[in-house]
Amino acid sequence: MMTASPEDTVATTRASKQNSSIRFTVGKVDAGMTILLTEDHHLIEFPSLLLPKGVTAGSIVNISDEILDQFGKNPPRTPVLCVKALTQSTCILEWDPLVLNQASLRSLDVYKNGVKQGHPISSPFHNTQYKLSGLEIDHEFSFYIEIKTSAGTLRSNEVKARTHTLENLTGTNICFGAFESEAALEECKRLVQEIGGQWSERVGIETTHLLCHVQGGDNYEAALQQSIPIVKPEWLKACVEHKKLQGALPYYLTQPSGNGISGNADSPRA
Question: Could you provide one GO biological process annotation from this protein's UniProt record (predicted)?
Answer without folding.
Answer: Golgi to plasma membrane transport
